[in-house]
Amino acid sequence: MTEELFREDATLLECSARVLAVDPDGVRLDRTVFYPQGGGQAGDAGVLRLADDREFAVADTRKGALPGEIVHVLAPGANPDGLVPGASVTARIDAPRRRAHMRFHTATHLLCALVPHPVDGCSITERYARLDFHMNEPLDKELLSQGIAQLAAEAHPVRHRWISEAELDANPQLVRSMSVMPPRGQGRIRVLEIEGVDLQPCGGTHVANTADIGAVVVTKVEKKSAMTRRVVLGFADAAPRHV
Ligand SMILES: [Zn+2]
Fold first, then answer.
1. Beta bridge partner(s), residue 221
2. 218 CA from centroid of ligand 1 (Å)
């Protein structure tokens, strides 16, 4: 099991950790700030740094085969020499990439509030986010962009808390997604609340206030099938990224 520091504080960019295991899939740590791909949100990239300053690029983060396992996937061709069980590392995420995920992810919650239909697909990346709604009514791109801008400007606080599985069972309307079910079996479910706007189970990373979403607009509305409308989000203030 890896301690999931990103669940309690999405603003952490780095942590110290100990290497538990290294195999061809990647590196497992005792604790991490790296979010593993899940719930539609892409995994983090970043670096693992040894005490002697040797750095290992992490290209992606995935869940392992066992519950609670987090695998830091090294960049192709990376030589993991020096990364051995017991080694101390500093694990640091790619901050601009994560920031993009957090802004988009929080914006998808606003979209859920604006479009009162079940979600049957979700993908959140560094450059765009898309949400598929199970519905056949048309959606207006400009009105949705305006709705997101308004909710963002209203500066609603965003916070998470944990509820019991029994509490979730008593409030099934909380579950908006048909494609991603909240993880069961740990006795508690993480819910994300955007005060006065949206409340639903979610394990992802979000900004702390809707004002921090910035300029996110709907770039496309698509009819994917008779009962699916896809909404794609982009940054209106997207600048070329210098790496
Ligand atoms: Zn979320």
1. 231
2. 18
